[in-house]
Amino acid sequence: MTVDRAELSLTLGVEIDAELLQLALTHRSYAYENGGLAHNERLEFLGDSILGQAVTVMLYTENPNLDEGELAKRRASLVSSVALAEIAVGIDLGSHVLLGRGEELTGGRQKASILADAVEALIGAAYLSVGPDAATALVLRLIDPLLNDPERFGAAMDPKTSLQELSTRVGKGLPQYVVTDSGPDHSKRFNATVLVGGDAVATGEGSSKKQAEMAAALAAWAVLQRPRR
């Protein structure tokens, strides 16, 4: 299976090397089911660093009156898995990701963690293809829609409290969390589902129960506040 490079490159506004683009969109589940192909986690590692630097420099230069704490809060909100997944949805990235059968059947194209990782991998691929300046420009284009939502900055720092306040304000009561875990004891993964008003609103993943609940809370906050914008 090959990626429609032209369509995605047009959306991104940058010409990424075809092999690197393929690699950036190859999830490990697909790689394992197809003979142990290379997958996107190394590119994700690279892209995470480039994303963080680009956002940090932008916030520092464009907000001379903000102190370190406020800058850190804004950076956290822009590089979170929820924010990156929102970016991915905006560019329909899920339709391009290469997934294994199991992930395909369990809604992998809508999973925030998979989408966020793919965004970071694309940034890494752009860096290797066209250099640091173009990769930074790509990051700034991708996060630009998020900058118009100032409420996001507070929610990213304390998502459970922010969700509780929002849920109460809209008359849905206190959120509830259901957490499951999987994997061996030395490498467990936790998955949290948050219910608001009795309805499952969002899920989150993490290496601890706390991380999973925070990810789910931030995703649910984004869902609940969207109609109010």
From TrEMBL:
GO terms for molecular function: ribonuclease III activity. Keywords: Cytoplasm, Endonuclease, Hydrolase, Magnesium, Metal-binding, mRNA processing, Nuclease, RNA-binding, rRNA processing, rRNA-binding, tRNA processing. It holds the Pfam family Ribonucleas_3_3. It comes from the Bacteria. SUPFAM superfamilies: dsRNA-binding domain-like, RNase III domain-like. Its main location: cytoplasm. Its cofactor is Mg(2+). Its EC number is 3.1.26.3. CDD domains: DSRM_RNAse_III_family, RIBOc. It catalyses: Endonucleolytic cleavage to 5'-phosphomonoester. It is an enzyme of class 3 (hydrolase). The active site is at 48, 120. Mg(2+) binds at residues 44, 117, 120. The keyword Ubl conjugation does not apply. InterPro entries: dsRBD_dom (IPR014720), RNase_III (IPR011907), RNase_III_dom (IPR000999), RNase_III_sf (IPR036389). Residues 3-131 form the RNase III domain. It is found in: Cytoplasm. Residues 158-226 form the DRBM domain. Homodimer. Belongs to the ribonuclease III family. Digests double-stranded RNA. Involved in the processing of primary rRNA transcript to yield the immediate precursors to the large and small rRNAs (23S and 16S). Processes some mRNAs, and tRNAs when they are encoded in the rRNA operon. Processes pre-crRNA and tracrRNA of type II CRISPR loci if present in the organism. This is Ribonuclease 3.
